Amino acid sequence: MSKISLIIEREYLTRVRKKSFIIMSILGPILFAAMMVIPAWLASLEDDETKIIAVIDETGLYSEQISDTPLLKFEFLNNQNEQEVRQNFSESGYYAFLVISDNLLEKPDAISLYSDSQITMDVKDHVRRSLIQYLKESKLTSYDISGLDKIIDDLENIDLKISTVKIGDDGTEKQSSAELTMIISMAFAFISYMFIFIYGAQVMRGVMEEKTSRIVEVIVSSVKPFQLMMGKIIGLALVALTQILLWVVLTMLIVTGVKSVFFNDSPLPDASRPQTELLQNLENSDQVTTPTSKELQFNNIMEMIKSLEPGKTLLLFLFYFFGGYLLYSALFAAIGGAIDHESDQQQFMLPITIPIIIALYVAMMTFRNPGSEIAFWFSIIPLTSPIVMMARVPFEVPLWELLLSMFLLVAGFIFTTWLAGKIYRTGILMYGKKVDYKEIWKWIRYSD
Amino acid sequence: MAFLEARGIVKRFVNHLALDKVDIAIPQNSIYGLLGPNGAGKTTLIRIINRITGPDEGTLLVNGHELKSSDIRDFGYLPEERGLYKKMKVGEQAIYLARLKGLSRKDAMKRLKYWFEKFEIQAWWDKKVEELSKGMAQKVQFIVTVLHEPSLLIFDEPFSGFDPVNAALLKNEILKLKERGATIIFSTHNMASVEELCDHITLINNGKSMLEGPTEEVRRKFSQHLVKIDFSGNAQAVKKILNEQFSLHRLEAIDNHYTAEVKTGEDQSLNHVLQSIMPKCHIHSCQELLPSMNDIFIQVVNQKDLSTQNQKS
């Protein structure tokens, strides 16, 4: 057993000390942190800029009907005509000017926005919304119905707030968010997919390196081929785990570091801002403006994350992640042992990549309908369960399905490592032979 | 008693018989030559001895008991297909391989220091293997093979890739290892080195052991009964005698100095030849001519080929 630990030690240390590993470990968190921080930073940049827009209302019907916002100011110029404004536009300091040339109820296209730069959507939308509101009101007024103002007020006050609540087995109610669950489910599925592929391929390349550099014969005179294969697989699993851990820790460090330097005044962790906005949308409460209600939102998110049982989910993630990794990397090791040249790998890679890719597709459908028959079957079959089941877990999976799937996954990787061990054992010492499936079938049938 | 004994080893691959009831007995503290053409089954036999693969039939005995996996720790194997991790540093790699053989890190360091100084390659310790030349890498590999002081060493083509100077250095080291009590299996095509080094040989062809025994005995067995005599004197008379009583193969003359190669009969020896020509000439030197291992190798392998052809026709 101490020999296996020696092999694991070598695999781990040589890989962790590689430049590519160090670069990936640093670059990854910077990228993740940038993905969280930059949108917040950009948003904060926009806040500073106030746009002033001149309005030339030739009809005189719409004066002061477009309200100002903190970022948009409207100046109604009664004494100037379009020509003057247009000529002096560059010196005027206006962001844009709006020309209304006729009654908009009769001619909806008698309104134009001019600017020397591209006019942003929010300006156009604001103008449109304000005027449509006014036009609707004036149209209603023109019907001359008594008590109209009150009716309109009453209509305005009609609102709906739908909260999604999940009822636990014990009857307790938990706040839940379908969208958040969806995102987490996709993240799990995708991380599993990515690491199985990247590290599985690394196992294969490692085996090929030993085979083509011919060191394998020296090593198998000291250790059993199966020990060598398992040592490599476990060593690489630890490398993967280190990488994930480094990414999580470094990303958190960078985000908090950047936040404390640039966003001191922010009442909220900036990283959660996009999620807050997302939640605002999904809870139909788009009127949130004050910091207090933002904090409320933030607490809501934490509440929802708790409702997903992070401890249990994380344990399941680790289980499925390693189960899937072990299952596939054994197969990758077998391929690496069987082939001589990089160019031969294509035909053997295909049967392995197909189930992984199918699993990712099913996982993407899963978050729309986690209880569907297809999601059920693919989360039970060991080849696809590591990815599909992780996509289902945030939506609560019946215990028996979970246990069945876990049991089959364990059985699955015991089977693939056994199978791979047989192929590997013969393959690594076989040089210069064109290998096909028929040949591999013979190796599997060798007794010893 | 034989240090390592293989009895009736059979190994079948799907389409051919790699080893067909091979018996070998390797005496303690000897250098044992494992000869044979390419594809004869030498590497398969070596892998079976190393327990890299198992035989289909037959047994292997070490010091009289059946070969166990714990015995392998006491073996050192230098495969024909050499290889080291290219991206790993020389020193680090040597320590890793030594630890796989059961040495502690401290012991490995101490012994490596000794060998690196001996081969004057201390400067390579922190180099990556890919920076070394082929010969340099082979030296490192040799050190790694002998580092744990195994009692059985298996060298598969140890001299390939070495220049004459380093080959001599290596030969010297192999002989020293034997002096220290190691038993050595030596697989090669280089017949000159077999004559120089090996005490015993086995010749394997097509998975069968064709020839076995101490090197001298084998050569004597294949003797063509040739003797070589240097003489001066009455060449005509000597020539006549040699032609009549024996069979003269060759007679060369440099001035008044002659060299004759003579084939004697089965029951005759060098003595007979000397006795008959001594009165007629002055003898400077004489020698029994034994066939080279190279000749024996070619003869045995071709015989076998011939007999298989006969079987087919």
TrEMBL record, chain A:
Family matches, as Gene3D superfamilies: Periplasmic binding protein-like II
Membrane topology summary: Multi-pass membrane protein
Main localisation: membrane
SUPFAM superfamilies: Periplasmic binding protein-like II
Keyword terms, alphabetized: Cell membrane, Membrane, Transmembrane, Transmembrane helix
Residue intervals of the ABC-2 type transporter transmembrane domain: 19-420
GO CC terms in record: plasma membrane
Keyword Hydrolase: no
Location of this chain's protein in the cell: Cell membrane
Molecular functions per Gene Ontology: ABC-type transporter activity
Residue ranges crossing the lipid bilayer per the database entry: 21-42, 180-201, 233-258, 314-336, 348-368, 402-421
Xref: Pfam families: ABC2_membrane_3
PANTHER family reported for this sequence: MEMBRANE COMPONENT OF ABC TRANSPORTER YHHJ-RELATED, MULTIDRUG ABC TRANSPORTER PERMEASE YBHS-RELATED
Protein name per Swiss-Prot or TrEMBL: ABC-2 type transport system permease protein
UniProtKB/TrEMBL annotation, chain B:
Keyword line: ATP-binding, Nodulation, Nucleotide-binding, Transport
Gene3D superfamilies noted in UniProt: P-loop containing nucleotide triphosphate hydrolases
SUPFAM superfamilies: P-loop containing nucleoside triphosphate hydrolases (SSF52540)
Domain of life: Bacteria
The ABC transporter domain, residue ranges: 4-231
Annotated PROSITE patterns: ABC_TRANSPORTER_1, ABC_TRANSPORTER_2
One GO MF term attached to the UniProt entry: ATP binding
Coiled coil ranges: none
InterPro entries associated with the record: AAA+_ATPase, ABC_transporter-like_ATP-bd, ABC_transporter-like_CS, ABC_transporter_ATP-binding, DrrA1/2-like_C, P-loop_NTPase
Keyword presence, ATP-binding: yes
Similarity remark: Belongs to the ABC transporter superfamily.
Name of the featured protein: ABC-2 type transport system ATP-binding protein
Organism ancestry: Bacteria, Pseudomonadati, Bacteroidota, Bacteroidia, Marinilabiliales
